[in-house]
Amino acid sequence: MTSDPRLERRTLTLRDVSEASGVSEMTVSRVLRNRGDVSPATRERVLTAAKRLGYVPNKIAGGLASQRVNLVAVIIPSLSNMVFPEVLAGISEVLDDTGLQPVVGVTNYQPEREEQVLYEMLSWRPSGVIVAGLEHTDASRAMLKNAGIPIVEIMDVDGEAIDSVVGISHRRAGRVMAEEILAAGYRRIGFLGTQMPHDHRARNRLEGFTAVLAEAGLKLEDQEYYSGGSALLKGREMTAALLARRPDLDFLYYSNDMIGAGGLLHCLDAGIDVPGKLGLAGFNGVELLDGFRVKLATMDACRWEVGRKAAEILSGKSGPTHGVRIELTPRLERGQTIRARR
Amino acid sequence: MTSDPRLERRTLTLRDVSEASGVSEMTVSRVLRNRGDVSPATRERVLTAAKRLGYVPNKIAGGLASQRVNLVAVIIPSLSNMVFPEVLAGISEVLDDTGLQPVVGVTNYQPEREEQVLYEMLSWRPSGVIVAGLEHTDASRAMLKNAGIPIVEIMDVDGEAIDSVVGISHRRAGRVMAEEILAAGYRRIGFLGTQMPHDHRARNRLEGFTAVLAEAGLKLEDQEYYSGGSALLKGREMTAALLARRPDLDFLYYSNDMIGAGGLLHCLDAGIDVPGKLGLAGFNGVELLDGFRVKLATMDACRWEVGRKAAEILSGKSGPTHGVRIELTPRLERGQTIRARR
DNA sequence: CCCGTAGGCGTTAGCGGTAACATAGCGATA
DNA sequence: TATCGCTATGTTACCGCTAACGCCTACGGG
User: Could you report the per-residue pLDDT of B164-175, keeping only the tens digit for each?
Assistant: First the structure.
């Protein structure tokens, strides 16, 4: 099953190609990397031989010899919500024509896991690191600092960066949404979010949000948290539970669009007057929302753009590869779940 | 910004740790890999020194020397629908305690792209490959065959495998759904799907589906295709368009749950009697559906289990690492959008 | 007291490439 | 014709680590 006995011998090396084409290994190497001067005739011979043998270069050896590796480590908390895949798309798009290749590691929002993943990734000597968030264990920070390669922390700008940073201020995002809600005249506000001790961004948003409420002499009337399971379903259930407990609330702020959408479905099904009697808002600007009859108010986190910018920094396309700081401005999308300002 | 001048010198090697701890490089290597006999005292000294210096091993060099690399290439078409992340989760879960590490490559459903990604991945000499689907370019097949490592093709079993294969029969899945629909008495059936020439699995499902219709003397009454954009929204729009054109249809079969959910939303909003006057069904069993008031009929693609099984084969945990064939049986979830069998 | 044995550690020789330098060939130039 | 300079190619010395082997010491039984 493993194929023709002649082929499976041992693994092919440059030497095999060199013998097959009658030139030195060095010349083969030059042809395969498009580097240095090689006559068209020789190039042709080498390429033919390589293809005929089915030679695949060995980047392990190449990387060791050249002390350069075309990998970029990308470390993110999760793949299961829609948000990070879109960041990845932005990264890939830019990296695709730079010869750099992203390698993804997932931490499940666990700092120790992030540390392990980082250690593992750095041991491949990538030429850059993109990592979500600004909060890391001490060991992680030390590794990142000592790695001697460009580091880009993404998603968030509320904190001290190790090297470069690209993101939005989640605190500001929370403030902006709160201001909008108050301007629309809502006053009895509830919050629904995930039970994620390590989602600092969600926490920052809530902080900014409650700060504005406090300035207006208000506070969150009630809150509800969940963890695990289908976010849409949880949003629906939590909303039902919260409203059963506090039917007097006039606004619900959700920590993400998925549970917000679940809440919206509940309200629509229950015949609640949205946004007249009850307003709703989420966070992220996920595409999913476009499919709903009533569009949820949200705030775009510029995920795609964050990915692009981070990749551009690493690729050196747009200036320096160190110490860059880019704060993007999230766009408020009012949808149809916040009534007009008064 | 790049840190203390003493630290940034050059990159740390085993030699540095060896000098710092007063033993040979080889002993350091043994300690760091937990291999061979080392006295507890020495081990301690070495570990302390390594930690103090912030040493991170160089797997490039290690891999070259040992001719072994703990990477598994995972090649999938997309990250933007919910299906592959769940496969990845299954893979990670199993690989996590084997010392193997998945490296993900995305092809966007393009065979040439798959070929490039594969070439790139093989050049890192991984110890195994997991690749979605059974359809590859000739060059890709050749590379996979000659790589001399375990290959697992996943998701689909309708075709000839290169080495091992784990998945479901999409043709059978289509047949089962069609039988269920006919048994419930639906007769005028429409299909809505993605315009994806390279999604062979969706095509196989449709083939199985129409084959059953044909055996009953029926055919698809109408169909609608889309590409790009928010699947939920597209599902809603396509459903509206199709029903406007053919109000006489009594069943809509969707190629995936996302557009199916969009269609369901349309029907609910339009006050259509589901499943009495119109039945609906999708495919995949995405968790999202749990959040809807009316649950869409679907068929679970065993994504998580597929990932697990594939990883188990590569890890050698459960027998041979070559030539294994595992066909899983998708479970039909009737939800509330197919009426009772007659 | 000698030798076998095993644990603990060092030495050597690559792994498969590439950077850097060396060299051969050859037409142009003085 | 000797010299130069350029292009096309070869040679050499590693890159950082580990497999394989070898040496030394301690120890116990015959």
Answer: 999 999 999 999
